[in-house]
Design brief:
single chain, AhpD-like, about 120 residues
């Protein structure tokens, strides 16, 4: 499952444009949710200067691990790597969270991280 990774709000333009990840994921069923994902979440919240994107990525992956949201974790691990979080930092966050959010959540996150890291090498 692909999840929203666009940083740009969806805006109408004269030239044809690729649909955002949110539009591809849910635009046909929930167009307003896709629009809010693009415009508010990634176009506003992720752009606020009070936290760096790197820090937002760490907070987000921590929440997704703690809440056991593996589908969203995969795309946000990729985003974290793009935002400067290292593989070692991701593994350390997973290890730390296993004690606070539950061992099964940590083990699940390790498997997803392994896949993401292997895909990064390709």
């Amino acid at each position: 499952m692909v999840h929203a990774q666009s940083n740009t709000p969806a805006t109408p333009s004269a030239s044809p444009r690729q649909p955002s990840a949110a539009q591809q994921l849910m635009g046909d069923v929930a167009p307003k949710l896709a629009e809010l994902t693009d415009g508010v979440l990634f176009g506003d919240v992720w752009e606020r200067p009070q936290l760096s994107k790197r820090d937002r990525s760490l907070v987000t992956i921590a929440a997704l691990i703690a809440l056991n949201r593996p589908d969203q974790l995969r795309s946000h691990l990729n985003r974290a790597l793009q935002n400067g979080v290292t593989q070692e930092e991701i593994v350390e966050a997973i290890t730390h969270l296993a004690f606070y959010s539950g061992w099964p959540n940590g083990v699940t996150a390790v498997g997803i991280a392994r896949d993401v890291f292997q895909q990064q090498k390709r």
